[in-house]
Specification:
This protein is of the alpha/beta class and 205 residues long. It is 44% helix and 18% strand. α1 packs parallel to α2. It starts with 5 loop residues before the first strand and ends with a helix.
């Protein structure tokens, strides 16, 4: 499986409807502590927008709702993985992405046979408090050796100027949250990300 090199993560369908039409091809809807009715509405809007623009939608955490809403990709953290029904996810045909932060989590993730593995935080991040120190580029290279040929997603403190090093270290896709959603001009920043990843988007599978 090939992931787009630019992996946008946002917390609402509003963001998806705003940024996906610019050319985003891979987006995660990450809504924490949302009421189920609101979550379903956002997923439905996000699915429609992504379908209209040829973008892959990934739903964070809520695997059962993702199945109910006929989504095709879910991302789980380690806590969610521990309680998820992997058989149900697979039987529904959903692809699976998993977060990892250390060797033990990577072993757990690989045992679940995911479609991609994410490693973070690569750099310091303000998204949430992390018990893990920044992983650095060398850890990306180690992870890529361990998981190949699975795609590797880098996340945490990424900016366009850091992408050459991230990709050179072995990442296949770079995930971004606050560098866009907290930017003074999110649309312009999204276009910048699209521009600096375009050469990797054109590489044949």
């Amino acid at each position: 499986m090939k992931l787009d090199p630019f992996y946008l993560i946002v917390d609402s369908a509003d963001w998806i409807e705003r940024l996906v039409p610019l050319g985003v091809k891979l987006v995660q809807l990450r809504m924490k502590d949302a009421e189920e009715s609101a979550l379903r509405q956002h997923i439905r809007r996000a699915r429609q927008c992504c379908a209209d623009h040829g973008c892959q939608l990934i739903v964070n955490d809520y695997w059962q709702i993702a199945i109910d809403e006929a989504c095709d990709f879910v991302h789980l953290g380690q806590e969610d993985l521990a309680t998820a029904d992997l058989a149900a996810i697979r039987s529904a045909g959903l692809k699976l992405g998993l977060s990892t932060h250390d060797e033990a989590e990577l072993e757990t993730a690989l045992a679940a046979k995911p479609d991609y593995v994410a490693l973070g935080p690569v750099y310091p991040t303000i998204l949430k408090k992390m018990p893990w120190a920044p992983q650095g580029l060398e850890r990306l290279s180690v992870w890529k050796e361990k998981i190949a040929p699975l795609p590797l997603v880098a996340i945490g403190g990424l900016r366009p100027d850091r992408l050459p090093g991230v990709f050179a270290a072995g990442a296949d896709s770079a995930a971004v949250v606050t560098d866009i959603t907290l930017h003074a001009a999110p649309e312009a920043r999204t276009r910048e990300w699209l521009d600096v990843t375009e050469h990797r988007r054109l590489v044949p599978t």
